[in-house]
Structure formats: C-alpha cells, structure tokens
Amino acid sequence: MDAISVSHLSKVYKSGKKALDDLSIKVQKGEIFSLxxxxxxxxxxxxxxxxxxxxxxxxxxxxxxRDVCKEQRAVRPLIACVAQKVSIDNxxxxxxxxxxxxxxYKLDDATANKRMDALITAFGLKEYEKxxxxxxxxxxxxxxxxxxxxxxxxQILFLDEPTVGMDIESRKAMWDTVKKIxxxxxxxxxxxxxxxxxxxxxxxxxxxxxDGHELVQDTPENLRQHTHLNxxxxxxxxxxxxxxxxxxxxxxxxxxxxxxxxxxxxxxxxNAAQDxxxxxxxxxxxxxxxxxxxxxxxSLDDVFLSLTQNKGRGV
Length: 315
Ligand SMILES: Nc1ncnc2c1ncn2[C@@H]1O[C@H](COP(=O)(O)OP(=O)(O)O)[C@@H](O)[C@H]1O
Ligand SMILES: [Mg+2]
Hints:
36% helix, binds adenosine-5'-diphosphate, Alpha-Beta Plaits, single chain, 4-stranded antiparallel beta sheet, 11 helices, Rossmann fold, 6-stranded mixed beta sheet, alpha/beta, 14 strands
C-alpha cells in the first residue's frame, strides 16, 4: 500500500482558475517526496487538498488506503501539516508550546512528556529551552513548529515550503532535521519546494509540476540521467557579446534550451554526444572565442529547464 495515492486530481477554484489539472502521484511509505514547482504551480493547493482543508473538483485520493474525501475523520489522525505560516504562541515557552499541541491530540501526560523529550533531543532544541520564543531565529521557530506537529507521531508529515526565505545555514539545518524525522521516526514526508537543490538533496522521489500538471516524477538520480549526455557546456573567453551568443545558440535547430551564467552557457540538446561535434565545428567556423567546451552531467536545474523550456519539441 502506498502512503499517498492521487489519481486524476483536478481543482478548479470558484474564480475559474484551474490550479490542478489531472494530476496523478504516488508516495511510498517512509520516503521523502518533494513536489517541486515554481510559484503558482499548484503546490499549496495540492497540500491543502491532501490534508483535507480543501475539496478537489475531481479525482481520487487515498492516504494510507483511506479515501481523503469520504473518510476525513480516519485520515486526520494519520497526518500532520506544517503550513508556511509559523503557528508558535509567543507567550508560551518552548515546552509549553509543545505540550499545548499534545492537548489538542489528547495525549496523556506521560506520553506527552516522553514524546516531547524525544523530539527536543532529535530536533536539537535543548539549548533553546531557556530562551524566550520571541528571540528565536526564523529557522529555529520553524524547527519548533515542526517538532510541535510531530507530537502526534503522524504517519505522514506535510511541509509546505519548509525553508522558504531562510539563509543557507538554516536551510541545511532544516534538511538535516527532515532527514532525521524520516530516519528516527519512520515518518513519510511530503514537502513542497521551489528550490531545485532542496529537492535534489533531500528526496527519494521528486515530482516536478507546472501549471497544475505533472512534468515528471522520478528519483533525483534518474531525473539527472534523463538529460545525461544531453547538456553541453561552453565557456566563452569573455570577448563575445553574451546576448548575441545566447540568441545565436538558442536559434540552432538542435538546441532545446539554454542557461547562461556569466561567461558560461549550458545548452540542452537532443543528443549531446553527436551535437557536441557539430557545435564545436560551428563555433570554429563562426570564429566564436571560447576557452572550453564539453559534455556535462546536468544538475536538476538543467533537468527542470529542459522540461519547462523545450521549445515545444517534446522531452
Ligand atoms: N483561493 C484561491 N482562489 C483562486 N485561485 C487561487 C486560490 N488559491 C490559489 N489560487 C491560484 O491557483 C494557482 C496555484 O496556487 P498555489 O497552489 O498557491 O501555488 P504554489 O503553492 O505552487 O505557489 C495560482 O495561480 C494561484 O493564484
Ligand atoms: Mg505555495
């Protein structure tokens, strides 16, 4: 049995906006699943539907085998959700915040205290116990927020953009926390992000969505494999006009998408092994000055680019 199974899910808001369009996904028990997509892709809409806050327009969703629309009461105790807005009470201490949560779940005192201590240790929050909650950094607040929602020991934890707006150190600490939840508590984790690096670092499975529909769903390794051998990197020597070169190369028939970073251009092509020679010859013929050219293992950025900007020629 899958932890989450979504088939042919669509959501049309009252405004007429179609936020999800025939989306199907599967999340296995015990994995970290990332839903990756740009702003407005439909990530929060999907999380809100999976966590029973919103009704879908059509489609079927099972959570641990239970129908989300028909068996809300059975589903709710199995899940916890950390929304983008932090839900800590600033008037309470760290422990009071956690115990308040345990009362919502009607845990007895002994269980609540045991879980709280385990979570404080696992989340590295011990050193913050004595500080005022208002003095916490954004990263620590978010970590406490997640610890609080873990008090019910949910089978599935939903995290909506858990690291948005954080500096890189706090993000890395958050990634460690998320991995720890999976390893120590066996929790299935469903998170949304618009950071490719985050999906790549954390996930067992990534689903990339855009405009409410799935572009691809696979392991990060397979996603990279997907465009393996298909990216050519050209380092210009700095004397070329970047814009002219960018236009020239993206107009080439075999180039599907490009990404430019200062003097470096990444070109996704149909068959890099073959196209590399053609491109190399074209650069020589056109007397374009470059310091190096080669085929590279693409990053998830390249995968995303090739999927979203393939000039309509299909992936
Ligand atoms: N309550 C709503 N009513 C109408 N449109 C909405 C509502 N909530 C979100 N949308 C629209 O649905 C699309 C998906 O939004 P959302 O799920 O929040 O995307 P994401 O979380 O990926 O940024 C966006 O175009 C957004 O403007
Ligand atoms: Mg969102």
